[in-house]
Amino acid sequence: MRRVLMTLGWLLTLLIVAVLTLGGLLLLDSEPVVEQDLAITSAEQAWAKKWLANNPPRRKRPGELVTLTLTERQTTLVANELLKHVGQGRVRVQLHDQRAEVTLSLALPWDPSGSFVNVLFDLVSNGAMPKVDNARLAGLPIPDVLVQTLADRTLAAVESTQALQQLLLHRDHLEVRYYWRPDLLERIGSGFIANAELPLLLHYQRELSQLLAPLRRGRAVTLAELLAHLLTTAAEQPLGTDPVAENRAVILVLAAYVNGHPIRDPADTTVKRLPYAHPVLLRGRQDLGQHFMTSAALLTQGGDTLSGLVGWYKELSDANGGSGFSFADMAANRAGIRLAQRATLTPLTASEMQQRARSGLVDDDFMPTLDGLPEGMDQQTFSTSFGAQNNADYQRMIALIDRRINAARLFQVTPK
User: Fold this and answer.
1) Which stretches of the chain score pLDDT less than 50?
2) 79-111, pLDDT tens digit by residue?
3) What is the distance between the alpha carbons of residues 378 and 66, in angstroms, rounded to a whole number?
């Protein structure tokens, strides 16, 4: 269940950050639309945690039809429990016949003035799968074209798995019917990949699987050795191959793997046993590898602004009740962005990175040292010591991180 929560949490985070990016951080409210529900009892909170712990059903056979039914109250309880794993916010779901109204208020952890992102949209029955309608951000309409594009892409990714059969909206409950597959999340994630990119990603996924197959179950591997192997494989491709496309595929495959969701062919309906997961370490830590590769992958899809905002949001959310703000995590975020920039900027920089990887890689080649980088700060400690992004002390820490990144071998600029 931890993997499911992680995936859902990051999907929600990406949605929120994408909305903020599109809105230019201008469409914020001073008050949440969804007020705190003081009527939620401790028994209801315990029920929501237990429900999430028991779903997806581990005892189901692959291919078995599963039906989940939730009342309006239960849907809201489960949605709010999921949101706790992402940040500070509240969700309200109101069910009607053939329609559901969804309202989300998310507090911005980096804004001491207490601003909120308020998102409202409707789910309307439309055959087996509902459609998104009437989406609004902070009271302003989101363009229909944007809403429909995001909705179509999401639904296409889900439908490509051939698992979800129906999502039915009733006045007093919602009903979800799907075929249980152990690799359902991987198939949904793979469905977001453009059809033209998928064969190349599957190629590098097979390369990665072959590399890891001989290893003992659960044995840790380093991100450095995985990067070196796949970039070397990219360097050995036939003359005329686009090195930028090869490097982008390497980055996306590694980002999926370190987060526990290898790339799958969504058109392949056969049920296959998931490969054993191996912890991927960077500076001896699994979380740093996840930060590094996630930021690198986001840059290949949405640019460094999106990658940076995701890293910033994740760290401030941690400070506001999670594991605490970490400049070490920020260093991994920024180094991952730099790797993706150099690996996909031009065919020349892409080829240079491939050639440098052929001699092998160690952490120092692409990840700054963590000496003197504070970690585990709660919100009060962070605010007292560093304030906000424009604080001079915060900027000095970021400058220190960037100097260390600039000195890494993989990011050295070749003299002209």
Assistant:
1) 1-26, 110-113, 190, 192, 303-310, 312-313, 315-317, 319-320
2) 888 777 655 678 889 999 999 998 888 765 544
3) 41
* Separation CA 62–CA 181 (nearest Å): 5
pLDDT at 356: 94
Mean pLDDT, the chain, rounded, equals 75
Rounded to two decimals, the pTM is 0.64
DSSP output for 8-72: HHHHHHHHHHHHHHHHTT---BSS-SS---TT--HHHHHHHHHHHHT-S-TTSPTT-EEEEEEEH
Alpha carbon 407 to chain centroid distance?
28
> Which pairing describes strands 221-222 and 280-281: parallel, antiparallel, or unpaired?
parallel
What tokens were used for 352? 């240079």
Res 19: pLDDT? 47
Please report the pLDDT score of residue 59 as a whole number. 63
Measured distance CA(234)–CA(237) in Å, rounded:
6
Whole-number Å distance between alpha carbons of 236 and 10:
34
The pair of structure tokens assigned to 8 is: 């859902």
Q: Would you state the pLDDT for residue 387?
A: 66
Contacts of 145 (CB under 8 A, 6+ apart): none
Contact between 75 and 44 (Cβ < 8 Å)? no
What gap in Å lies between CA 307 and CA 288, rounded to an integer? Answer: 15
Please give the pLDDT value at position 123. 85
According to DSSP, residue 377 is labeled B
Whats the size of the chain, residue-wise?
Answer: 416
> Is 394 in contact with 123 (CB distance < 8 Å)?
no
Q: What is the pLDDT of residue 42?
A: 87
Contacts 24+ apart (CB under 8 A), 157-162: 157/188, 157/189, 157/190, 157/191, 157/192, 157/266, 158/129, 158/188, 158/191, 159/129, 159/191, 160/187, 160/188, 160/190, 160/191, 160/266, 160/267, 161/187, 161/188, 161/191, 161/266, 162/269
Picking from 234, 257, 251, the residue whose alpha carbon sits closest to that of residue 296 is 251
Q: Which two structure tokens, joined as six digits, stand for 307?
A: 């990658």
32-to-74, 92, 94 alpha-carbon distances in Å: 21, 12, 17
